[in-house]
Amino acid sequence: MSSKSNISANTPHILILGMGGTIAGLAPNPEDSPLQYEAGLVGVDALVAQIQSVVPVGVNLVSRQLANINSRNLTEAHLTNLGLAVKEALLDAAVKGIVITHGTDTIEETGLFLQATCGKLAHTQSKRVILTGAMLPSNVPGADGPSNLLDALRWASTPIDNCPGGVYAVMDGRGCMAMDLAKRHATALNAPLQNAPSSSVGLINPSWLSGVKAVQATWNEDLPIPQEGEWPWVEILTSHAGARPETVAHWLSSAVQGFVLAGSGHGGFHDGWIEPLDRAMLQGIALARTTRTGAGATLRNIPELDKLGCCASGSLTAPRARIALQLALNAAKQANKAGKPLTWQDFFARMADLPEIK
Ligand code: SIN
């Protein structure tokens, strides 16, 4: 889809990429039923027009609609297109920062994807990529989209307390690293940042900033963006009371390439899965463990010794671990083609072992 701008291509600007979401949603009865609505109906140029009059003087905006969807329908092809657009913009001297309007339901996946594929480039180019969205549709009283978009634009366009280039998110007056997003509340205005170490948009706190810098120092190579159609097939399986062997065995005749196990507690799984998971690994299916608890890290060989080849996911939640495993499988394939003997575990560990921001 096209760019919308009345400035010349070389004029310094902030690029706003529209993906859809509630921020672009419309409720038919905004006063009576504000939460009954359709996401992804308003164009990104209209969202920008709503706040144009309060954008700081001298900040030029260019908007580009990449998709206009409810993010629960996000596909891997959408991620490929978004990643390529972000990379292109990071390399464009006229683009000073990038804001992405996105649905909050799967903003968690997109946050990890962009960190893993564009985080280093954003850092070296000293540009901020800011994801934002809204919990209320655009036409209801008190809609949070305009203030979130304005905060995101301010953060993308102004030097704030030495905050380095990188991939961030802004919602409800707070910012975090995009890789720390996880929507853990159905309705709260700060839902995707509730569990994330964050800082106020106006006043970046020094301990958060030093955590960001530790991540930036550790993340020293972006992973390749899988081409559309090249994304490995990875499923999330959640362990629970009464889990059955068939839940795993069912997949063994499919072309699935990896499982993320959302285990209980430390990331352990039901004994009923041991035998079919052994068979899965013998078939070459990649295995990563995480926890379904919603917080805390999954550590190597805790609570039991890991099977050889199975990776613990650190602080990656199941949806993030799934993206990480897809990117790791793809990166290993590309590396092997280029004659480098790297495994998916090598790439996965880079994402699972990133420093945790407290
Ligand atoms: C969506 O994820 O597109 C809908 C929900 C939201 O944006 O909050």
From TrEMBL:
CDD domains documented for this protein = L-asparaginase_II
Q: Which family does it belong to?
A: Belongs to the asparaginase 1 family.
Identification of the protein by name: L-asparaginase/archaeal Glu-tRNAGln amidotransferase subunit D
Q: GO molecular function of the protein, one example? A: asparaginase activity
Please give the biological process terms from Gene Ontology that the record holds.
asparagine metabolic process
Question: What Gene3D superfamilies does the annotation carry?
Answer: 3.40.50.40, L-asparaginase, N-terminal domain
Segments forming domain Asparaginase/glutaminase C-terminal: 234-336
Q: Which domain of life is it from?
A: Bacteria
Where in this chain does the record put each L-asparaginase N-terminal domain?
13-191
Which catalytic residues are annotated?
A: 22 (o-isoaspartyl threonine intermediate), 104
Q: Which PANTHER family match?
A: 60 KDA LYSOPHOSPHOLIPASE, L-ASPARAGINASE
List the keywords (alphabetical): Hydrolase
- Pfam families cross-referenced by the UniProt entry: Asparaginase, Asparaginase_C
Q: Which residues form the signal peptide?
A: none
> InterPro entries given for it?
AsnASE_II (IPR004550), Asp/glu_Ase-like_sf (IPR036152), Asparaginase/glutaminase-like (IPR006034), Asparaginase/glutaminase_AS2 (IPR027475), Asparaginase_C (IPR040919), L-asparaginase_C (IPR027473), L-asparaginase_N (IPR027474), L-asparaginase_N_sf (IPR037152)
Supply the EC number(s): 3.5.1.1
Which residues does the record give as substrate binding sites? 71, 104-105
- Which top EC class is given? hydrolase
